[in-house]
Design a protein that fits this description.
Elements lengths: L2 H16 L4 H15 L5 E8 L4 E4 L4 H13 L3 H7 L3 E4 L11 H8 L3 E10 L2 E9 L7 H48 L3 H15 L3 H13 L1
């Protein structure tokens, strides 16, 4: 595809991401755009792998990417896992002759997938990820496709990081609000100032070995009960 077409489509993606949208919506745009920009792509998805083998299969254009993610995590082998936790780009020209993944490759052929392209997502220390493209034809991807996929993967990683930052901020604001409410209840109920109310909350937290925000919620619940 021409550099102009790629630049135009990435600009469209950037504008769409600027609007208030969920991470899932942005990632779905990424996989849809991958099919538009990379002709060999029949289906695509995103795999996130966390510590302890936990994984999320996201933004699949069909059930096939989710099936393949499940198989890779079951077999503990495959290009998506390899790209997520190691190599930057993993390409398979023909799963019928692929020897790197003796369990996964035949399973791909059984499903009808003959070639694939996986590109690492730079997400966070505790989570690895990959953008994964699949084709029902052999030799569907080339080096130009790798470049386009890498750009799309960077866009997906940015959306994931932004989404997590937003979730963390929302959680922090919620925690602060609950502690503030609990302090207000204690101040009113026991006639103490703001500092003393917070010290009482902290003491309750330490004595009961319960998180401060959970103690605050219990205080709020006593007012509502």
């Amino acid at each position: 595809m021409s550099p102009h077409s790629l630049a135009q489509r990435m600009a469209d993606l950037a504008r769409a991401s600027a609007a208030p949208r969920s991470v899932d919506e942005v990632l779905s745009d990424v996989t849809t755009t991958a099919r538009e920009l990379i002709p060999g792509t029949d289906t695509a998805g995103i795999l996130l792998v966390g510590k302890g083998g936990k994984f999320e299969s996201l933004a699949g254009l069909s059930e096939v990417p989710h099936q393949l993610d499940e198989l890779q995590m079951t077999f503990n082998e495959g290009p998506c896992v390899q790209a997520a936790v190691g190599d930057l780009i993993v390409r398979t020209d023909d799963f019928r002759t692929e020897e790197r993944w003796p369990k996964y490759a035949p399973a791909c052929v059984d499903i009808g997938v003959l070639s694939g392209l996986s590109v690492k997502l730079y997400t966070a220390e505790r989570t690895a990820g990959a953008l994964n493209l699949f084709s029902f034809k052999p030799n569907a991807f080339d080096t130009e496709d790798e470049t386009v996929a890498a750009i799309l993967a960077a866009h997906a990683a940015a959306a994931i990081l932004a989404g997590r930052h937003g979730e963390q901020l929302e959680s922090a604001l919620s925690t602060r609000d609950r502690i503030g409410q609990a302090k207000g209840i204690i101040m009113e109920r026991y006639g103490v100032d703001d500092v003393r109310a917070f010290e009482m909350l902290k003491q309750l937290s330490q004595d009961s070995n319960v998180r401060l925000v959970d103690v605050a919620q219990r205080v709020i619940d006593t007012r509502n009960s």
